[in-house]
C-alpha cells in the first residue's frame, strides 16, 4: 500500500541516455526543522524552497495542531507564526506523522518539556520503528511515554511539568535522537548537553544558532559535545531551504549507470555531514564533478555533474562515513551492482530500522535481479557485475519505503530486463516530483495498469 491510498506499481526499463538538468526539491531534514523551530519562535518565520513532500506536510499539520499558525502562499512561500518556547497547546486529536521518523521523533522531543499529553501514530512502517531511543532520554527530562510493546507507536507522551536539563550520550549514531534531546532541552532551565561519538547531520545545531539560541559544539575525546542553554526566546527567521543531497543521489546515480548519460543537478548542499555518498562514488571511479563550487548560507554548495561511468570499481566504504550517507546506501548498492568487484559496507546496522529493513529489502531485490549479495547484522557486500550486468526482469517489494522504490527504479533504467516496484506511492514522502523529473531526463518509467 502507498502511504495514502492504493499501491502504485511502476516499471523502469532501459532506454536512451539520461540527459539534462535535474532540479531536485528542498532538503527534507532542513524542511522539518524550519517548521518546528519556526513554531518555537516568537513571530513570523518565512520559508522558501520548503520540500512539499508528505513527510514535511505532516509536520506542518502537527505544528498547527500544537497551536502554531502555518500557511502557504500560492507561490510556495510558507509562513509560520510561532508560539514561543514552551508555548505549545495540547493537541485535540492524535498526531499522525505518516511515514516520517524525523517528524515524529523531533516533535516528541519538542513537546516533551511542556506539561501536556499528545498521542502519536503513523503508517504501518512508522508504527514498526523503535521509539525508545527517543523516549529513554526524554524520560530524563521528566517526560513519560506509554506506547505499544517494544516502544512502538501509537504512543502517548506526557511532557514534564518541571523539566530538568539533561546530559546525554547518544547510544546510536542518530541525528533524530540528538535533535529530540536538544529540542526538549529548549524548554528546560539550564544547560542540556548531548554527546555523540560519531558526527551525524548537524542541521538542528546550525538552525538553533540561526534562531538565536546559545549553542556550542566542542570536539573532545568522547566525540562532539553539544551544549544548549535552555529557555531562550527564539527569533523568527527567513529561511531558504537548500536542495536535498539525498534526493540528488537518484538522478546522479542513474546517470552514472545508464550508458551515454550526462546530467547536471544544480545547487546541492555539500555539508560534510551529508555528502558521504558523493565522496564514495568518486572513490569508485565515478565521473562526478562539482561545478561552480561556492558557499551559501555558510554551507558549501555545488552543481553536481554526473556522466556515464563504465569504469567504476567496488570499494570498502569507510564505516566512519556511514552517518554522512546513511540514507544513500540503497542507491549506492545499485551503483555497486553496476561496478566491477565487491562493494563492502560495514557499520550500517541503522539501515535495519529505517522505513524498512533496507539491507534486507535491497538484498532480496538485487538477488532476484541476478546480483550476489552477502549480509550480516551490520554489514553487507554487493558483488557487482560491471556496466549493464544486472539481469532485472523482477518485481520487488518496497515495504512502504520511498528510497527502496526509487533505488530499484533507477536499477531498472540500466538492467537488461525491466524492473517493477510494487508500490511507488511512498516516493511522494520525500521526492514528489521524482517521476516527472526522471522522465524529463529521458527515463522510461511507466505506471503499471493493475487491471491489465
Ligand atoms: O535528522 C534527520 O533529519 C534524519 C536523520 C537520519 O535518521 P537517524 O537519526 O535515525 O539516523 C536520516 O536517516 C533521516 O532520513 C533524516
Ligand atoms: C530514514 C528516512 O526518513 P525518516 O527517518 O524521517 O522516516 C529517509 O528519508 O530515508
Automatic annotation (TrEMBL):
Q: Which principal EC class is assigned to this enzyme? A: transferase
Q: Where does 3-phosphoshikimate bind?
A: 28-29, 33, 174, 176, 327, 354
Q: Which molecular function terms from Gene Ontology are attached?
A: 3-phosphoshikimate 1-carboxyvinyltransferase activity
Residues bound to phosphoenolpyruvate are: 28, 101, 129, 176, 358, 403
SUPFAM superfamilies, alphabetized: EPT/RTPC-like
Entry EC no(s): 2.5.1.19
What GO cellular component is one of the record's annotations? cytoplasm
Q: Part of which pathway?
A: Metabolic intermediate biosynthesis; chorismate biosynthesis; chorismate from D-erythrose 4-phosphate and phosphoenolpyruvate: step 6/7
What keywords tag this UniProt record? Amino-acid biosynthesis, Aromatic amino acid biosynthesis, Cytoplasm, Transferase
Q: Where is the Enolpyruvate transferase domain?
A: 13-436
Do you know which Gene3D superfamilies this protein is assigned to? Enolpyruvate transferase domain
Q: What reactions does this protein catalyze?
A: 3-phosphoshikimate + phosphoenolpyruvate = 5-O-(1-carboxyvinyl)-3-phosphoshikimate + phosphate
Location(s), subcellular:
Cytoplasm
* Residue numbers annotated as active site: 327
Q: Which GO terms describe its biological process?
A: amino acid biosynthetic process; aromatic amino acid family biosynthetic process; chorismate biosynthetic process
What does this protein's UniProt record list under function?
A: Catalyzes the transfer of the enolpyruvyl moiety of phosphoenolpyruvate (PEP) to the 5-hydroxyl of shikimate-3-phosphate (S3P) to produce enolpyruvyl shikimate-3-phosphate and inorganic phosphate.
Hey, which family's this protein in? Belongs to the EPSP synthase family.
Q: Which PANTHER family match?
A: AROM/DEHYDROQUINATE SYNTHASE (PTHR21090), PENTAFUNCTIONAL AROM POLYPEPTIDE (PTHR21090:SF5)
Can you name this protein? Answer: 3-phosphoshikimate 1-carboxyvinyltransferase
Instruction: List the source organism.
Output: Roseicyclus marinus
Amino acid at each position: 500500500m502507498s502511504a495514502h491510498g492504493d499501491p502504485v506499481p511502476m516499471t523502469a526499463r532501459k532506454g536512451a541516455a539520461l540527459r539534462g538538468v535535474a532540479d531536485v526539491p528542498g532538503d527534507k531534514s532542513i524542511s522539518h526543522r524550519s517548521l518546528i523551530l519556526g513554531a518555537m519562535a516568537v513571530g513570523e518565520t518565512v520559508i522558501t524552497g520548503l520540500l512539499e513532500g508528505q513527510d514535511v506536510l505532516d509536520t506542518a499539520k502537527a505544528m498547527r495542531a500544537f497551536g502554531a499558525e502555518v500557511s502557504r502562499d500560492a507561490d510556495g512561500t510558507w509562513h509560520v507564526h510561532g508560539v514561543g518556547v514552551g508555548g505549545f497547546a495540547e493537541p485535540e486529536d492524535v498526531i499522525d506523522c505518516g511515514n516520517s521518523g524525523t517528524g515524529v521523533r523531533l516533535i516528541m522531543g519538542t513537546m516533551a518539556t511542556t506539561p501536556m499529553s499528545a498521542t502519536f501514530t503513523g503508517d504501518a512502517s512508522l508504527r514498526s520503528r523503535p521509539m525508545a531511543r527517543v523516549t529513554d532520554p526524554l524520560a530524563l527530562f521528566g517526560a513519560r511515554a506509554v506506547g505499544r510493546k517494544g516502544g512502538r507507536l501509537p504512543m502517548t507522551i506526557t511532557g514534564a511539568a518541571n523539566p530538568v536539563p539533561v546530559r546525554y550520550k547518544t547510544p546510536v549514531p542518530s541525528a533524530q535522537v540528538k535533535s529530540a534531546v536538544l529540542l526538549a532541552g529548549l524548554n528546560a532551565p539550564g544547560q542540556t548537553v548531548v554527546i555523540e561519538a560519531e558526527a551525524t547531520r548537524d542541521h538542528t545545531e546550525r538552525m538553533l544558532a540561526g534562531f538565536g539560541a546559545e549553542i556550542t559544539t566542542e570536539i573532545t575525546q568522547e566525540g562532539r559535545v553539544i551544549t544548549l542553554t535552555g529557555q531562550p526566546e527564539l527569533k523568527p527567521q527567513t529561511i531558504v531551504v537548500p536542495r536535498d543531497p539525498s534526493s540528488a543521489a537518484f538522478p546522479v546515480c542513474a546517470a552514472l549507470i545508464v550508458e551515454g548519460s550526462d546530467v547536471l543537478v544544480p545547487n546541492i548542499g555539500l555539508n560534510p555531514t551529508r555528502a558521504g555518498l558523493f565522496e564514495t562514488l568518486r572513490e569508485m571511479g565515478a565521473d562526478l564533478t562539482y561545478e561552480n563550487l561556492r558557499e551559501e548560507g555558510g554551507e558549501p554548495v555545488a552543481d553536481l555533474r554526473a556522466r556515464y561511468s563504465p569504469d567504476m570499481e567496488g570499494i570498502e566504504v569507510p564505516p566512519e562515513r556511514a552517518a554522512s550517507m546513511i540514507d544513500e546506501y540503497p542507491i549506492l548498492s545499485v551503483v555497486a551492482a553496476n561496478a566491477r568487484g565487491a562493494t563492502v559496507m560495514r557499520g550500517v546496522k541503522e539501515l535495519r530500522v529505517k522505513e524498512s529493513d533496507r539491507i534486507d529489502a535491497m538484498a532480496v531485490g538485487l538477488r532476484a535481479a541476478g546480483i550476489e549479495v552477502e549480509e550480516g547484522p551490520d554489514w553487507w557486500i554487493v558483488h557487482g557485475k560491471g556496466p549493464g550486468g544486472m539481469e532485472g526482469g523482477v518485481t520487488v517489494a518496497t515495504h512502504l519505503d520511498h528510497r527502496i522504490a526509487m533505488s530499484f527504479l533507477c536499477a531498472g533504467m540500466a538492467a537488461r530486463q525491466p524492473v517493477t516496484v510494487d508500490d511507488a506511492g511512498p516516493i511522494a514522502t520525500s521526492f514528489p516530483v521524482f517521476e516527472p523529473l526522471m522522465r524529463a531526463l529521458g527515463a522510461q518509467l511507466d505506471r503499471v495498469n493493475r487491471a491489465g
